[in-house]
Amino acid sequence: MLLSLIQAEHLFEDDTHQVAHKRQRVFFVPEEQPTSDMGVSSLFGLEGVALSLEIRLLFSLVLAGVASGLVVLVRRLRRRLAKTYIPIVVDLATSVIVVGIVVGTTLVLADLWGHTETLRDQIGFLSLDKHASEVIISLVVLIAVQVFAGVVARLLDSLVTEQEVLNHHQREVTLRISQVILWGTAALLILGIWNIDLTGLLVGAGFLGIVVGMAARKTLGSLLGGVVLMLSRPFEVGDWVVIDEKTGIVSDITLMSTRIQGFDGEYIVVPNDVVTNKTITNRSRQGRLRVAVEVGVDYSTDTDRAREVITEAVDSIQTDNEFVRASPPPNVVVRTFGDSAIIFEAAVWINEPTTRRVMHTEDRLVSAINTACRDNDIKIPYPQRELTGREPHDGVVRDNPTEK
């Protein structure tokens, strides 16, 4: 009994000492310091740094420029690496890098401007325990769209260069339309993944579409005109065309406009809605062009002899001009009665017509015909007019023709 009391007393003393020790430990625990906002919401420690507005703007511009340069560099490397390695693997790797650059830049800018908490509240990016699946699926969608866009671009390049099914204009238009469809679909998928209600967005987009359609009729007309040009293909880059009295070589075709290089060095931009509403003359579409000049001979000249001389002159320029076609053969015909001469037309066909070739051919035709007529005593007359004067005589006006 005594032993039991002694053990109980010792246990009571031990419990008392433990409680006192715990109280002492609690007593000496320092007060918790208030947690800084930077420790909660800042990712890179930039939000708590005192920076002026100018420094933040400058840093943001530099960061955006560096990120853009890296994206361009990655895309150029992708084109080179795709020739050596498996293209889809290269697309996948570069897409991951591009997405990482964009996401990293966005986070740094949000941290710099103190919006990390807002970004976290909006998309839950930092709460991976709640939204890990949404984040991963969204990244997978972005990477998949980037890879598929690269596949579409390579397929279109193959259709242009190897199979020659499409021209460069059709390739550009098709690529842009496919990119809009792909990224639009990706945006809708991501919004659905994050359970964002699209009802208000679609209603607002409908009203916005009506307003934009009314305010930008010409722009939308040019855009639709670019699609029409892609489907109808009235001309291609490098063709010699006449559009709305503007003549030149087509240098570029975009969704909005057609660019023409004039023969005098001018640079002409024609909106596609104007192109589709005007008459288009393509002088080089068939790969050949008829070049004709006119010459008048005196009325006293034998037309058969004149035709023979002019034909020989036209035939002679084929040896000097390799681009003059032998078929169809040169042609010389009597066109009409002129004021002071019988008008002949001499015509030849040339290959791959350009302005330089047309002007050179016309020069050779005129020179050869003039030399042949002079050597064969065929007169090319000057313009002549017959003047008639009228004088009243006994109340009657009589004609008094005089030739000058």
UniProtKB/TrEMBL annotation:
The chain crosses the membrane at residues 55-74, 86-110, 135-156, 177-194, 200-216. Coiled coil: none annotated. InterPro entries: LSM_dom_sf, MS_channel_1st, MS_channel_C, MscS_archaea/bacteria_type, MscS_beta-dom_sf, MscS_channel_2nd, MscS_channel_C_sf, MscS_channel_CS. One of its GO terms (cellular component) is plasma membrane. It is a multi-pass membrane protein. Residues 383-404 are annotated as: Disordered. This is Mechanosensitive ion channel family protein. It comes from Halovenus rubra.
